[in-house]
Design goal:
The radius of gyration is 16 Å and the shape is globular. The chain has a single domain (about 1-190), classed as Electron Transport, Fmn-binding Protein, Chain A (Pnp Oxidase, Chain A), CATH 2.30.110.10. The N and C termini lie far apart (about 30 Å). It has six helices and seven strands. Strands 1, 2, 3, 4, 5, 6 and 7 form a seven-stranded antiparallel β-sheet that branches. By secondary structure, it is an alpha+beta fold.
């Protein structure tokens, strides 16, 4: 697990594909917050392909988290604690996330995360495979990200950030919710149109 702690989006910082993907993700996530009341679409929900499989395992809802130096996890947790009203939480989250949150792609870790129910067979398959390809395709853009898969422990900063984010939109997340991290290998990933 030391690799994920050391990496957190820094070793490939200047990779052209990473920069293009992170900028695109910031743009489409801001659009989702401003225009779609935070509901995820194909730009945020990649298909998951395990190595050697032609059929997608399914689509997952990914979260893009701030890198540790820019973390707002405590602010997100505070929003949840302020009210028990799910509608108020959601409204506060939308206001916060649609403002300046996604303005600077450089503030985000490139390790995407996703939550799964406790005991999820899909999460187990992905975790056991250790690697997968996430295929994002929306708005005339496609990214195929070859990723190493991590199971994130509750003390991991990205686990905490993911849970804080998702609880704002789904306060019924059960105890034991599993969080997986997807760490792209930018040298093995691709896009269409290609990034120059």
């Amino acid at each position: 697990m030391s690799s994920i702690a050391a990496h957190l989006g820094e070793s490939f910082t200047n990779h052209p594909l990473r920069k293009a993907f992170m900028r695109w993700q910031c743009r489409v996530r801001q659009m989702a917050m401003r225009d779609n009341e935070g509901r995820p679409d194909e730009a945020i929900m990649p298909d998951v392909f395990l190595d050697g499989q032609d059929e997608a395992l399914g689509a997952i809802i990914t979260v893009m988290n701030k890198a540790p130096g820019y973390s707002v996890t405590s602010e997100l947790q505070h929003m949840s604690a302020k009210t028990n009203d799910p509608a108020q939480r959601r409204d506060q989250a939308l206001t916060f996330l649609s403002a300046a949150y996604y303005q600077k792609a450089a503030e985000f870790s490139d390790i995407l995360t996703a939550t799964f129910p406790p005991g999820s067979p899909g999460a187990s398959k992905i975790r056991d495979a250790g690697h997968c390809t996430l295929v994002f395709e929306a708005y005339s853009q496609r990214f195929d990200l070859k990723c190493k898969v991590w199971r994130l422990a509750p003390h991991n900063l990205l686990h905490q950030a993911t849970m804080a984010h998702n609880i704002l939109f789904n306060p019924g997340l059960p105890p034991g919710t599993e969080v997986l991290g997807f760490e792209p290998n930018w040298n093995e990933s691709s896009s269409d149109p290609a990034v120059r």
